[in-house]
């Protein structure tokens, strides 16, 4: 099942559950409201009966006739049902009927005429409500002590007090409706139920259509991300995906684009690295091959000068291969660093003293300022030695004679700054950021003719980073290049030396 289908179904199921709960809540609220309305309607209807009972009491002085003669109770119910008010004339008619038509007076009225009691409907039985027996009336009459006079009485019955001149004479009591019983009430409730259900189904239909569009809109960037990652997996690092908005999916798309750009840059660097390596290896090999072919063809004699030229190229090739090996080990993390606290000022002092005479023969003046006090760092002595040697060798190769090379140490906050500067020639601004790239050389006076492989500064950068340091290149006040290596002071590792 696709993500789109799962998302759409999730929206649909959630919407369906919400609509179902909403339908049940509305239906329950409607049922409760309808029951309250029915009870209030009955209370209003029974008020007419209460007024007639009050009038009956006023005409007869008491309610004993109602208790003794069921006929008068039935007449009160029937008249109140019709909305008639008890008058002297109506009371006289009841008395005359009782005297001269005893059979008619004692005949029970039809069930459909009983006050508050409707003929049982088929749907009433479905609602779980049994019809009242023939002799059971919907409303009961209680005396002033709440003792039943006509009909039953239970604690949950609703009651309506009847007073005459502020004197309590009786109560009307009736059971509260719990379900609609009248046919029109049941029909109204059923129609509302069907209407609510229809509205819920229509809302579900529109919700399903809306969820379809929302799911498609939500899944579109995910689909594009999947397509882009597929292209990247195939090696097409130029593939990019569109970024919509600023949410988590948009951030993922931006990260995918960043990843693709990084891989594209890495792939470009790899190809450039392979091409540069092949070129660097081919150049000395071509020279050596040409020298040997010239000797074989008799163009050049196999004397000391020719052999020295071949040896020089072999040494250059060997140095290039060693540098490539060193840099490859640094890239893959094959270097094993034996960290310890060491005095870098002493190491710089010894290295400069050893290289000064050699540089003097080349017409270069090496100056150094190691400081009087010891400067401690935590590092691998062999690799730090290699770092200093590579920096000095780089300046030695690319500084015109006569020239000056200056090395100094300085503390700055929590760092030790190792600074190497040289005199002309300088480096163009656009070349400064690329000096630490593998096999990169400035195509001017700083070129291969000086003997450099273009790997020395890249190795220095790897060593500095392995010591949690950094390296920067800038223009030197002496007219050439300035390299600054920042290394953490030893006290950052928990130990400080004086």
Automatic annotation (TrEMBL):
<dbReference type="InterPro" id="IPR003594">
    <property type="entry name" value="HATPase_dom"/>
</dbReference>
<keyword id="KW-0597">Phosphoprotein</keyword>
<dbReference type="GO" id="GO:0000155">
    <property type="term" value="F:phosphorelay sensor kinase activity"/>
</dbReference>
<dbReference type="InterPro" id="IPR036097">
    <property type="entry name" value="HisK_dim/P_sf"/>
</dbReference>
<feature type="transmembrane region" description="Helical">
    <location>
        <begin position="6"/>
        <end position="26"/>
    </location>
</feature>
<keyword id="KW-0812">Transmembrane</keyword>
<dbReference type="InterPro" id="IPR036890">
    <property type="entry name" value="HATPase_C_sf"/>
</dbReference>
<dbReference type="Pfam" id="PF02518">
    <property type="entry name" value="HATPase_c"/>
</dbReference>
<keyword id="KW-1133">Transmembrane helix</keyword>
<dbReference type="InterPro" id="IPR003661">
    <property type="entry name" value="HisK_dim/P_dom"/>
</dbReference>
<feature type="domain" description="Histidine kinase">
    <location>
        <begin position="276"/>
        <end position="491"/>
    </location>
</feature>
<protein>
    <recommendedName>
        <fullName>histidine kinase</fullName>
        <ecNumber>2.7.13.3</ecNumber>
    </recommendedName>
</protein>
<feature type="compositionally biased region" description="Basic and acidic residues">
    <location>
        <begin position="102"/>
        <end position="116"/>
    </location>
</feature>
<keyword id="KW-0472">Membrane</keyword>
<dbReference type="InterPro" id="IPR004358">
    <property type="entry name" value="Sig_transdc_His_kin-like_C"/>
</dbReference>
<keyword id="KW-0418">Kinase</keyword>
<feature type="domain" description="HAMP">
    <location>
        <begin position="216"/>
        <end position="268"/>
    </location>
</feature>
<feature type="region of interest" description="Disordered">
    <location>
        <begin position="102"/>
        <end position="136"/>
    </location>
</feature>
<dbReference type="InterPro" id="IPR050428">
    <property type="entry name" value="TCS_sensor_his_kinase"/>
</dbReference>
<dbReference type="Pfam" id="PF00512">
    <property type="entry name" value="HisKA"/>
</dbReference>
<dbReference type="GO" id="GO:0005886">
    <property type="term" value="C:plasma membrane"/>
</dbReference>
<feature type="transmembrane region" description="Helical">
    <location>
        <begin position="194"/>
        <end position="214"/>
    </location>
</feature>
<dbReference type="InterPro" id="IPR003660">
    <property type="entry name" value="HAMP_dom"/>
</dbReference>
<dbReference type="Pfam" id="PF00672">
    <property type="entry name" value="HAMP"/>
</dbReference>
<keyword id="KW-0808">Transferase</keyword>
<keyword id="KW-0902">Two-component regulatory system</keyword>
<dbReference type="InterPro" id="IPR005467">
    <property type="entry name" value="His_kinase_dom"/>
</dbReference>
């Amino acid at each position: 099942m696709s993500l789109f289908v799962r998302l759409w179904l999730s929206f649909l199921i959630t919407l369906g559950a919400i609509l179902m709960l909403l339908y049940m809540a509305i239906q329950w609220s409607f049922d409760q409201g309808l029951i309250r309305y029915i009870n209030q309607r009955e209370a209003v209807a029974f008020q007419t009966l209460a007024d007639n009972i009050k009038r009956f009491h006023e005409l007869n002085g008491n309610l004993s006739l109602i208790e003794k003669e069921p006929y008068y109770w039935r007449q009160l119910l029937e008249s109140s049902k019709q909305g008639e008010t008890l008058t002297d004339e109506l009371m006289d008619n009841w008395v005359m009927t009782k005297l001269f038509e005893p059979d008619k007076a004692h005949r029970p009225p039809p069930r459909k005429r009983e006050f508050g009691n409707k003929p049982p409907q088929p749907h009433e039985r479905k609602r779980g409500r049994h019809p009242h027996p023939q002799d059971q009336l919907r409303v009961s009459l209680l005396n002033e002590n709440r003792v039943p006079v006509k009909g039953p009485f239970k604690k949950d019955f609703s009651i309506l007090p009847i007073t005459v001149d502020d004197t309590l004479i009786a109560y009307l009591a009736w059971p509260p409706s719990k379900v609609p019983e009248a046919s029109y009430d049941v029909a109204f409730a059923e129609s509302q139920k069907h209407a609510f259900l229809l509205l819920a189904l229509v809302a579900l239909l529109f919700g399903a259509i809306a969820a379809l569009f929302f799911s498609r809109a939500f899944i579109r960037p995910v689909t594009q991300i999947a397509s882009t990652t597929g292209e990247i997996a195939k090696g097409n690092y130029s593939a990019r995906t569109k970024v919509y908005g600023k949410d988590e999916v948009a951030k993922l798309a931006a990260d995918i684009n960043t990843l693709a750009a990084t891989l594209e840059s890495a792939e470009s660097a790899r190809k450039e690295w392979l091409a540069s390596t092949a070129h660097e290896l081919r150049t000395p090999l071509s020279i050596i091959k040409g020298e040997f072919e010239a000797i074989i063809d008799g163009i050049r004699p196999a004397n000391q000068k020719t052999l020295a030229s071949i040896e020089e190229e072999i040494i250059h090739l060997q140095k290039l291969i060693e540098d490539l090996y060193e840099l490859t080990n640094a890239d893959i993390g094959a270097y094993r660093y034996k960290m310890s606290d060491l005095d870098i000022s002493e190491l710089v002092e010894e290295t400069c003293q050893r290289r000064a005479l050699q540089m003097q023969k080349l017409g270069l003046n090496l100056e150094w300022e190691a400081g009087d006090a010891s400067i401690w760092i935590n590092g691998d002595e062999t690799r730090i030695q290699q770092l200093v040697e590579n920096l000095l060798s780089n300046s030695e190769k690319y500084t015109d004679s006569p020239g000056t090379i200056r090395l100094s140490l300085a503390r700055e906050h929590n760092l030790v700054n190792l600074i190497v500067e040289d005199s002309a020639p300088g480096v163009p601004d656009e070349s400064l950021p690329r000096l630490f790239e593998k096999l990169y050389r400035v195509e001017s006076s700083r070129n291969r003719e000086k003997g450099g492989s273009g790997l020395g500064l890249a190795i220095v950068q790897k060593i500095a980073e392995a010591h949690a340091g950094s390296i920067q290149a800038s223009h030197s006040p002496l007219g050439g290049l300035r390299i600054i290596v920042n290394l953490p002071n030893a006290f950052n590792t928990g130990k400080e030396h004086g």
